[in-house]
Amino acid sequence: MKIGIDKIGFYAPHLYLDMTRLAENRNIDPDKFTIGIGQEKMAVPPMTQDAVTLAANAAVDMLNDVDKEAIDFVIFGTETGVDSSKSAAVYVHELLGLNPYARAIEVKQACYGATAGIQMAKAHIAMNPGSKVLVLGSDIARYGLSTPGEATQGAGAVALLISAEPHILAVEDESVYFTADIMDFWRPVYSDKAFADGKLSNEQYIAFFSRVWEQYKTKADLELNDFAAVCYHLPYTKMGYKALKTVLDEGNEEVQERLLTNYKLSTVYNRNVGNIYTGSLYLSLLSLLEQTNELTAGDRIGMFSYGSGAVGEFFTGILQPDYQDYLSIERHNALFASRSEVTVSEYEAMFDDALPTDGSAVELEIDSDPARVCLAGIADNKRQYVNKEKNTTL
Ligand code: HMG
Fold first, then answer.
1. Which structural domains are found in the chain, ordered by start?
2. 230 - beta bridge partners?
3. What sign for the dihedral angle of Cα 385, 387, 393, 394?
4. Mean pLDDT of the residues in the chain
5. Fewer beta carbons within 10 angstroms: which end of the chain, N or C?
6. Which one of 37, 80, 115, 183 would you pick to mutate in the ligand 1 pocket, going by the greatest count of ligand atoms within 8 A of its CB?
7. Is 202 annotated as a binding residue?
8. What pLDDT is stored for residue 391 in this prediction?
9. Is 167 noted as a catalytic residue in this protein?
């Protein structure tokens, strides 16, 4: 039985900051951000969006009533969750109106969470072929104003419907994963900003890729020439390129050209959103699939997942017949086209604005946020979520 990605949804907040404007404001050559790092625009979340709402917005237009009834497991990968106890998956389960006979959990290992979710989903469906699993990767990446990491911030979510006989990508069984205790990037519970040892994180990303790739080739008996494309976790779009470069000479000229072309296409969405942590690899996959007409059924796509701390995994998927018919290119084009630019000072004010942490109540203005699902405030220490169409307040 094939198991894999049946549908993919994506959401980013309606506001963005232009990286050239940011560079100019910080007295940095804009080429460093747009070429050296490889980012054009950074998604900026309003107060009315958090990891829960971003994920719900990524899934809300993607699911039909049959899906909602069949989903019996919601796995929410995030490292910027909103509660230390209750899982973000439970909120999303209600906001989307899913079948109550379902499991709902949150998974955390930096940017690796959603990949763990996919592998768990695969095992669940192998045991329960009629069921579907909703895997969410949703985060807000924050490093701080004027920090080296600032240019790699972002916000957004990817929703993946995992099922038997999937329409988009069948995930193959062979996979290699690797864990080592490394302090390359972390966020202590008292901080709303991540700490990063930038140089070490870049080195470890490449080292983990090398480890899992080498082992994968032996285990699966495959080589670079067997791949139509390789997608990477993209903290910024230059990072995956650095990893790809380390293996490119394993392929012949035609393969190198193909992989480089597809790599570029796989970075278009990420370049305009920034790091969305857990969802970044899947945003890259979505970008590739929605930007090319060249890939065909049977093509193998490699996927490198990396979550600082660190866990890395290399796995693969096979494109399914007519997969294009199951993408939502128009919806995602409309999402990008409808975004509005904010100035650097507006972004800075939004960055510094925070929800109360002393238990006081707050009501947020949700009319200026076009998103279907919004955070409307906090009352009695409970977040108040609204699905504007379902008219549900949690
Ligand atoms: P930095 O140290 O300020 O930048 O910040 P740099 O000096 O290394 O320059 C970056 C690149 O721009 C270099 O290219 C420069 O040469 C180039 P490279 O040598 O790397 O190819 N450059 C220019 N190019 C054109 N024109 C110019 C110019 N000037 C310089 N004028 C750093 C970079 C990534 C370290 C920083 O942004 C950072 O700390 N980011 C956060 C950490 C991060 O993203 N790490 C990536 C790997 S870890 C990971 O992926 C996991 C993560 O997603 C978290 C999770 O798992 O949850 C982060």
1. 3-169+328-393 (3.40.47.10), 173-320 (3.40.47.10)
2. 302
3. negative
4. 97
5. N
6. 37
7. no
8. 56
9. no
pLDDT-based confidence at residue 390 (cuts at 50, 70, 90): confident
Cα 246 to Cα 113, 125, 191, 255: the distances in Å are 25, 35, 35, 14
Query: In angstroms, how far is the first alpha carbon of the chain from the final one?
Result: 38
- Tokens found for residue 214: 């080498």
CA–CA separation, 282 and 225 (whole Å): 22
Question: Known binder of ligand: residue 391?
Answer: no
Length of the chain: 394
Check whether 367 has a pLDDT greater than 80: yes
What's residue 196's pLDDT?
A: 98
Whether 321 and 165 have beta carbons less than 8 Å apart is answered as no
Its pTM stands at 0.98
Nearest to 50 by CA among 392, 369, 381, 379: 369
Tell me which of 111, 145, 185 to substitute to probe ligand 1's pocket, judged by most ligand atoms within 8 Å of the beta carbon.
Answer: 185
Q: Is the CB of 29 under 6 A from ligand 1?
A: yes
Mean pLDDT calculated for residue range 367-385: 98
Give a three-class secondary structure readout of the chain.
CCEEEEEEEEECCCEEEEHHHHHHHCCCCHHHHHHHHCCCEEEECCCCCCHHHHHHHHHHCCCCHHHHHHEEEEEEECCCCCCCCCCHHHHHHHHCCCCCCCEEEEECECECHHHHHHHHHHHHHHHCCCCEEEEEEEEEECCCCCCHHHHHCEEEEEEEEEEECCCCEEEEEEEEEEECCCCCEECCCCCCCCEECHHHHHHHHHHHHHHHHHHHHHHHCCCHHHCCEEEECCCCHHHHHHHHHCCHHHCCHHHHHHHHHHHHHCCHHHHCCECCHHHHHHHHHHHHHHHCCCCCCCCEEEEEEEECCCEEEEEEEEECCCHHHHCCHHHHHHHHHCCEECCHHHHHHHHHCCCCCCCCCEECCCCCCCCCEEEEEEECCEEEEEECCCCEEC
9 C-beta closer than 6 A to ligand 1: no
